[in-house]
């Protein structure tokens, strides 16, 4: 997203939503924006943060719209997650017992690609994001990521995955433990939102989380993820 403010029409196009619906939401304070001279203006960063939280409750169709409107040239639209994930960025088991050690280990795993240029800065950015609100879900999956893209810290966008030997406290709702972790590191907002939307759709597949939890090694986990990525595109 550009750094200038967005008009209501631009926002509608970016979100794939009806302009009138968005205007009503803005009038009711349900979407971040401000009126200047009677005209609504929306800051791209505020919209991205708002949309990221909204997506946690979206169904498959709503997430598909986000994928389509936020399409990035950096990924294959058919398999956006697999585009940024490789066998070398999957670690099962992931030997970590705390939130910080999970994130540290996942950054190290992502670094096998030689695309992680500033691991300390990425660690801080991810931990700062977790301090605002956990990226953990009730189903045991967590998707740690920086609050904002980190283009200067990466050579290219990358995803790493790890499964810990047992669940750990990660701040998920209802104090549920987390054991499946996707670290998402993107150079731009469009890639970031597209990947989050696809992961959300993958988590809604009936057996994805269970199969991922049953994967005994890195290769099996990688194959489960790639298969789910393809399956979503075929729906």
Mean pLDDT: 94
Please state the second-level CATH architecture of the largest domain. Answer: 3-Layer(aba) Sandwich
Q: How is the biggest beta sheet arranged?
A: 4 strands, mixed
Q: Number of DSSP helices?
A: 10
Number of domains: 2
End-to-end distance? 28 Å
Q: CATH homologous superfamily of the largest domain, by name?
A: Mannitol-specific EII, Chain A
Low-confidence stretches are: none
Q: Into which percent range does the helicity of residues fall?
A: 40-55%
**Number of extended strands:** 6
Strand arrangement within the widest β-sheet reads 3-5-6-4
Overall shape:
globular
SS strand fraction: 5-15%
Work out the radius of gyration.
18 Å
Under CATH, the topology of the largest domain can be stated as Mannitol-specific EII, Chain A
Q: Return the CATH class of the largest domain.
A: Alpha Beta
Q: What are the salient characteristics of this protein?
A:
Mannitol-specific EII, Chain A, two-stranded antiparallel ribbon, 10 helices, 2 domains, single chain, 6 strands, 4-stranded mixed sheet, 235 residues, alpha/beta
Briefly summarize what is shown.
With about 240 residues, the chain is α/β, with parallel strands linked by helices.
Can you characterise this structure?
Helix content is 46%, strand content 14%. By secondary structure, it is α/β, with parallel strands linked by helices. It has 2 domains: 8-69, no CATH class; 80-234, Mannitol-specific EII, Chain A (3-Layer(aba) Sandwich). A 4-stranded mixed beta sheet has the order 3-5-6-4. A two-stranded antiparallel sheet has the order 1-2. Helix 6 runs antiparallel to helix 7 (119-132). The longest helix has 17 residues, at 218-234. 40% of the residues are buried. The model has no long low-confidence stretch (mean pLDDT 94).
């Amino acid at each position: 997203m550009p750094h200038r403010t967005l008009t209501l029409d631009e926002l509608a196009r970016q979100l794939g939503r009806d302009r009138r619906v968005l205007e009503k939401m803005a009038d009711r304070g349900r979407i971040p924006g401000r009126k200047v001279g009677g005209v609504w203006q929306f800051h791209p960063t505020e919209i991205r943060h708002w949309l990221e939280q909204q997506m946690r409750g979206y169904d498959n169709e709503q997430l598909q719209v986000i994928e389509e409107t936020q399409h990035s040239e950096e990924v294959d639209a058919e398999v956006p997650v697999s585009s940024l994930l490789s066998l070398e960025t999957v670690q099962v088991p992931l030997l970590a017992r705390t939130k910080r050690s999970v994130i540290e280990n996942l950054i190290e795993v992502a670094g096998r690609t030689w695309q992680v240029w500033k691991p300390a800065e990425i660690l801080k950015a991810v931990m700062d994001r977790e301090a605002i609100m956990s990226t953990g879900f009730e189903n045991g999956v967590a998707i740690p990521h920086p609050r904002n893209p980190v283009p200067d810290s990466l050579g290219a966008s990358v995803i790493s995955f790890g499964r810990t030997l047992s669940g750990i406290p990660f701040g998920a709702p209802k104090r549920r433990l987390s054991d499946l972790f996707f670290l998402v590191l993107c150079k731009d907002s469009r890639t970031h939102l597209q990947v989050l939307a696809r992961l959300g759709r993958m988590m809604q597949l009936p057996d994805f989380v269970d199969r991922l939890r049953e994967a005994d090694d890195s290769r099996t986990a990688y194959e489960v993820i790639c298969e789910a990525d393809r399956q979503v595109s075929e729906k």
